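pasting for ref
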Amino acid sequence: MNSILTKDNIRLNSTALDKTDAIRQAGDLLVKAGYVTPAYVEGMLAREAITSTYLGNGVAIPHGRSEDKDTVYRTGLSVVQLPDGVEWEEGEKACLVVGIAAVADEHVDILTNLAEAIEDPAQAEHLVRATDAGSIVEQLNRPPQPQDS
């Protein structure tokens, strides 16, 4: 089975001119990895124009719209790390841009891990400052942690 997030899909210590550039970078990684067609990247930009994909704590998760499903070959993720951040919304900077292309729900565990990481400012900071793509893959690909009840 191919992993939906590999070191090759991560760009560390990047910069972006603006939100559109950051989304294009995340989308280009998805295209290069063979997850999507170039048209999917346009769908990511169109989706962002409808509603922001900024989650908080410096993380955004741009993805396509439901009508872009036919431009997805297989589920995959990309990560663009922007240590200096890029303005996503007024007053909010994204430092970690996670591009998502999904055929079904294979990406849900990674999104769960990402949500857990950004709830903890120290974990979010680790992702933003990581100097090894492997540590990002490890943090986001780990099995979901059981919730304390």
